[in-house]
Every structure is written in structure tokens, then in C-alpha cells.
């Protein structure tokens, strides 16, 4: 598929990696981001390298901003959201506005432009299930306002496909990690937060007993999967999991990162501090990726251990430039 690709949330962690991948292939990219969680510096770095990335500041819940962003666009990757289960428990209406209202607004503009859409869904839609390996045929069971808002976006995708003939792929992300993920926020992803704490010699915080498990997926694999969905020929609304396909407990994640830190010369870390389990958290999250492989040829290439090593090395480079604190 040629032509300009609109990436909402393109200044964020996953979005900036996707923009870089597409732009390095010579595909013009337009970013729409309100910078509520994204960083303008992520886009500036791509532009400084001469990559064809245009930036528009605005919210996906603003019809005028979305209309401007959609001009001349043939395809959209909709990543913009207000992430974090914990934040959604504190601010459910803000989460709904960004995730549900923003998605409906974006889809309306995409339908008018007849643009193909890839929507970043969330594994949180599954909630807790008796089936350990989550597949797309399961009935959704959201446990938090964030999960509900992201699922509402999926339902809008299905409705717009039926009513307006829009071609949409809902790509459900699991626990994505890698370079550029913010590490200094109360809502930071666990890999980023653990890397920062270990590099600063601080105790990591583990919510609950640490035996909860996640399907940690390196960002490079996720953006490759998104591109496969974007360039696919599926019609209507298709839903697929994009994940590594292996579960790791939070305690095992900590052990891997602590070992990585010591291999690179860090001293023994302080003992982890346990906090109460968080409201709305899923106990176990593991993806079945067979459908994504069958429909779009998705196959993760970066192993979990390799991804952690790359990620820790990136945060270590920030620490070396005093950019981590």
C-alpha cells in the first residue's frame, strides 16, 4: 500500500517505532498526537534524520483536528489512547474520552476517506478467563475502565465495518516493551519501571505476589505485525492477537533483568518491595497468535531474553547521559 499513512499517537512509544519503520521504507507518515503521553522529541529525532514524517498536534477526540490529519490519507494506524489500568481507575471519564470517543471520531473520518484502519486493541479485553491461552473467539470480560474503553473502541470498529463498509483490523496488543517506553511515570510499564529502578540502584515495586504472568512482546515484533495488518487485504473487521506467545511471571521478569544488570556491572540490587495488588489487574495474560500468523503471516522474531537485553542496554545508555533520573 502506497500513499500517506496517518499514525495517531505517533509521538508515543509504540507509535514512534512504527513511524520510523514506515518512513525508512520511504512511506510518507503523518502523526496526530496531543502529547498527553507522547513526546515531541520522538518525532523530532525522526525528522532530523530526514525521514518523511509530518507532525500535527491535536486530539483524536477533536473532529476538526482529525479532519485535517485525514487529508490525502489512504491508511490509518490508530494507536492514540490514554494507557494504564491504574490511571483509568483514577480517571475513568478521561480514559473513555480518549479511547472510546477518540476512536469513534477517528473511524468516522476514516469512513469518509475510505481509508483502511488498524486499531490498537488491548489484551485487557479478555480479562480473566478459564482458558489460559487467550484466543480471539473468547467472549470479552473487561475488568477495568481502561479495558472497557478499549473494548468500546473495538465495538465501534465492528459497527463501522458493518454499516459503512470500512476495512479494519483490530490488533490486540499484550505487554509491549522496548526502547523509548517512558520509565519515570507512576503509570510506566513494568519492564521500563524495573530497568530504571535497577539502574538507579533503587528497589523495584512489585504489585501483589509477583506470580501474575504476562505475554511480554518486544516492540519491533509488534510494529512488524501492525504493518502486516496494514498492508493486508482483509475485508470488514478482523481481530487478531499480536504477541510473543509466551507467559512470564513478574518475579521471573525481575530475576532476568536483575541478572542482566549484574552482567553489565551493576551491584546487587536492593530487595524488591511488594505493594498490594492493583484493582482491575488481570491475573494471567497469554496470547494465542495462530490467527495472526494464518491471516497475516505474523511471526515474532525477537526472543524475550534478547528483547530484554536490548531494552536494558537502551535505558543504560540514558543513565550514562544522566537522562534517566
Task: Give unreliable regions as ranges.
Answer: none
The general outline is globular
Report the CATH architecture of the domain at 4-177 and 219-245. Answer: 3-Layer(aba) Sandwich
Largest sheet, in brief, is: 7 strands, parallel
| Alpha-beta classification | alpha/beta
**Mind telling me the CATH superfamily name of the domain at 4-177 and 219-245?**
NAD(P)-binding Rossmann-like Domain
> What spatial order of strands do you see in the largest sheet?
3-2-1-4-5-7-12
Distance between the termini: 42 Å
Q: What is the number of helices?
A: 11
CATH class of the domain at 4-177 and 219-245: Alpha Beta
Q: Nearest-angstrom radius of gyration?
A: 19 Å
Kindly identify the CATH topology of the domain at 4-177 and 219-245: Rossmann fold
What proportion strand? Answer: 15-25%
Element-level helix/strand string? EHEHEHEHHEEHEEHEEEHEEHEEHH
In round numbers, the mean pLDDT is 94
Helicity, in percent? 40-55%
Tally of strands: 15
Amino acid at each position: 500500500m502506497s500513499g500517506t499513512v496517518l499514525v495517531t499517537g505517533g509521538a508515543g512509544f509504540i507509535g514512534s517505532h512504527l513511524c520510523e519503520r514506515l518512513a525508512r521504507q520511504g512511506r510518507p507518515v503523518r502523526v496526530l498526537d496531543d502529547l498527553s503521553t507522547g513526546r515531541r522529541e520522538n518525532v523530532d529525532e525522526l525528522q532530523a534524520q530526514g525521514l518523511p514524517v509530518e507532525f500535527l498536534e491535536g486530539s483524536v477526540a477533536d473532529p476538526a483536528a482529525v479532519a485535517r490529519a485525514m487529508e490525502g490519507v489512504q491508511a490509518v494506524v490508530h494507536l492514540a489512547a490514554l494507557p494504564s489500568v491504574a490511571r483509568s481507575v483514577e480517571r475513568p471519564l478521561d480514559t473513555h474520552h480518549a479511547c472510546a470517543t477518540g476512536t469513534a471520531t477517528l473511524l468516522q473520518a476514516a469512513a469518509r476517506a475510505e481509508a483502511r484502519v488498524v486499531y490498537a486493541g488491548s489484551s485487557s479485553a479478555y480479562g480473566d478467563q478459564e482458558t489460559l491461552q487467550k484466543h480471539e473467539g473468547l467472549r470479552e470480560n473487561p475488568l477495568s475502565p481502561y479495558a472497557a474503553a478499549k473494548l468500546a473502541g473495538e465495538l465501534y470498529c465492528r459497527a463501522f465495518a458493518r454499516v459503512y463498509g470500512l476495512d479494519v483490523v483490530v490488533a490486540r496488543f499484550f505487554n509491549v516493551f522496548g526502547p523509548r517506553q517512558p520509565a519515570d511515570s507512576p503509570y510506566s510499564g513494568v519492564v521500563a519501571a524495573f530497568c530504571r529502578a535497577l539502574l538507579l540502584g533503587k528497589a523495584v515495586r512489585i504489585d501483589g505476589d509477583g506470580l501474575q504472568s504476562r505475554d511480554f512482546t518486544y516492540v519491533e515484533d509488534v510494529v512488524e505485525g501492525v504493518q502486516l495488518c496494514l498492508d493486508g487485504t482483509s475485508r470488514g473487521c478482523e481481530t487478531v492477537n499480536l504477541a510473543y506467545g509466551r507467559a512470564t511471571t513478574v518475579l521471573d521478569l525481575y530475576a532476568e533483568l536483575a541478572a542482566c544488570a549484574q552482567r553489565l556491572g551493576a551491584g546487587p540490587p536492593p530487595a524488591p518491595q511488594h505493594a498490594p495488588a492493583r484493582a482491575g489487574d488481570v491475573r494471567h495474560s497469554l496470547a494465542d497468535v495462530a490467527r495472526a500468523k494464518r491471516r497475516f503471516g505474523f511471526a515474532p522474531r525477537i526472543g524475550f531474553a534478547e528483547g530484554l537485553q536490548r531494552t536494558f542496554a537502551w535505558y543504560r545508555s540514558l543513565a550514562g547521559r544522566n537522562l534517566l533520573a
